[in-house]
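Practice problem: predict the structure.
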Amino acid sequence: MRYEAIIGLEIHVQLKTKSKLFCSCDNRSEDALPNTAICPICVGHPGVLPVLNKQALEFGLMAALALNCKIPEKAKFDRKNYFYPDLPKGYQISMFDEPICLDGLVPIEVPAAGETRKYAEIRITRIHLEEDAAKSTHTDGKTFVDYNRGGTPLIETVTEPDFRSPLEAKVFLHELRRIMRYIGVSDADMEKGHMRCDANISLRPIGHTELSPKTEVKNINSFRAVERALNYEIQRQTKLWDEGKPPMITTTRGWDDVQGMTVGQRTKEDSADYHYFPEPDLPPLLLHEMVDLVRPRMPELPRAKRLRFIEEYGFAPGETMILTEEKPIADYTEKVMMELREWIRTLEIEGTEEEKWEANKKKLVKLFAGWFITKLFGLMEKHAIDIRIIKITPENFAELLTLLHGNRINATAGLQVLEEMILTGADPHHIVEEKKLEQVSNEGEISDIVQGVIEAHPQPVADFKAGKAQALQFLIGQVMKASRGKANPDMAQKLLKKLLSKM
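Answer:
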């Protein structure tokens, strides 16, 4: 492409406070009947007075800290004036020139090969608090308005135009969702409208530095749709540039997900069109004291946790992305690692506690990643159980791994034990005893089974001696079958080779 894409995002995140931004109406009423979670304040009756939700401000400041923003001494609310059926007051209470924070920075890693860059730093212009508008539904030429959503608290995050590809925008949105979930301020589910994105995009010839008039794409409600909409705009605007007719004014377009295209709506308003003025019913906010209160509540953030999981435990980057995607899963991983470390301390082997851990860590980490990500995730999908709702305690999962690590059970028995743990939450040791699944590692006992398999299968024995390596796998399978899956497979293979070499 002879042109460079310049992309910026404006993201609204709905805060999961108990009540709305300026009144006591329930903010958790997604399934309520239309127009039942409303009051005179949130539908704009004359004479009512808004009162700021303290928790919403705290959540906004937590988001500001999480995105590495500078927090000023004070902020204030303003009236953003415009007419639309979903805004009964005729104005929205938002923030204009004094938001709760400015100048943030979010680093992202772009995983796909072939992109122009694998790492980017996305600057955050500002974050401000505002109330949401009502929800309009268009059916058969009619518009229905549900005011339940009106007045719910939002934070709007505005980025600088630092994205250079649609994929970078999608990666950033995924990271923003992780951050919002980690700090507990929002579920940030795009499909449910908890996070909504408008994307600003323009093109310019490669090597040029001036910005062209942007196109704002609205109504994007999924990560995939963001990437599709921006790719469509790149193609559309490239054609205009090639024809010598690049966009000359700033416009707004809607995204039609069914047709996979953007549709022209209007020329873009600027701030003067909204006639902002300070909200007379709300005093300015003094932020520094509030920031000192919320700062101690900040958890370790996703990127820091990913880097630590790689450094401290030795997880591979791909494994780390999976293990830190959801905070409950990351916390579960940490607890299992702690349990495994405690178990290693009890082993009667040479070395200090730290030396014992370091000697076994690599194998245990590999064991955890394989059994947690592949086997546990797979079995929970099989039984349609949300991976975030794990019945198995970290102690029990760690105990299962120690049984496997110590060759007390083999992988076949381990899967059987794990499935029983998923369904019942039972202790793995009890399951092994009850179902008699402990691995047989007695050489004499396995030798007898191996001898019986050799005598019962002369043709595979002859095939092996003729150089057919796959025959050995068949014989190992027969040993496992004869032992009901309890024989140590490594010992079985060793004894098979030893006995076959003597024939």
